[in-house]
Design goal:
two-stranded antiparallel sheet, 3 domains
Length: 260
């Protein structure tokens, strides 16, 4: 087995020059079709993921990535990066060390920093709480200050129970990537079961790509997923439930934990 490492820009770009021909009779211009899978969006979903990982996962500021991309002749302004990496409400916990904590605090030993990011009507807000409260409890404190006449907000987080506000209503959207990742990790030990799950989720990602290629509005995208992705997810949910109820998967195994 040979291993060869190759350096490249964090965000790479490909330029497609589409040939245009004009009819001498009607003067209409015909443009060649782009290669399959290229689409009309300039920024692929993977480029947005890489920007987010570099910024929030590795601490690389937008302006530094801008400078690096400029030196490699693939321009990517900091303002453009910020415009791509945004939207909805995100919250999660991370470990944190502090010298002292204000009282009163819950009787816990862990210390967390909860990050809560909110986007609404073009306005963006980021809040960070460090202490013994979990993300869901900190989110509850924030939502308690919202105007009572506002509709329930959309909350995006992983399925960890402590991320949920216990006393306030939200429209919950669990992160599908978190759940999928668990099956990727145990695919080597449970190849057939994980292949079924990953291929099923692949249909959902394919449907979402279609909504982007067709430029659907949020309402159209929701309707499309309800009609085309909903039955697929219901079938997957029934299959996952059967694995545990019919004892086809050990609950404490890697597969059982991924299912849960």
């Amino acid at each position: 087995m040979l291993v060869r490492l190759v350096g490249q820009a964090p965000i790479t770009g490909t330029v497609y020059e589409l040939e245009k021909l004009r009819c001498n009779l009607c003067l209409e211009v015909f443009t060649a079709e782009a290669p399959a899978g290229v689409g009309e969006e300039k920024y692929d979903a993977t480029s947005a993921s890489m920007m987010a990982l570099l910024k929030y996962g590795s601490g690389l500021p937008f302006y530094r990535l801008e400078g690096l991309q400029e030196k490699l002749e693939i321009p990517l302004p900091a303002s453009t990066q910020w415009g791509i990496v945004r939207e909805v409400v995100y919250n999660d916990d991370t470990g944190m060390k502090v010298l002292a904590l204000p009282a009163p605090e819950p009787e816990r030993t862990g210390v967390f920093t909860s990050g809560i990011i909110s986007t609404r009507e073009g306005q963006r807000m980021a809040l960070f709480f460090t202490g013994r409260w979990h993300a869901g409890e900190n989110l509850s404190a924030v939502l308690a200050r919202r105007a009572a006449d506002l509709a329930p907000p959309i909350q995006m987080c992983d399925a960890l129970s402590r991320n949920l506000p216990k006393t306030l209503e939200v429209i919950l959207g669990n992160c599908l990537a978190h759940g999928r990742r668990r099956f990727v990790k145990v695919a080597q030990n449970f190849p057939e079961q994980c292949r079924f799950v990953l291929e099923t989720l692949g249909e959902i990602y394919h449907n979402d790509e279609l909504t982007r290629e067709q430029g659907m509005s949020p309402e159209q995208r929701l309707g499309f997923h309800q009609a085309c992705s909903g039955p697929v997810m219901e079938k997957l949910h029934a299959w996952l439930t059967a694995q545990l109820e019919e004892k086809k998967a050990e609950p404490n195994s890697g597969l059982g934990q991924a299912i849960s």
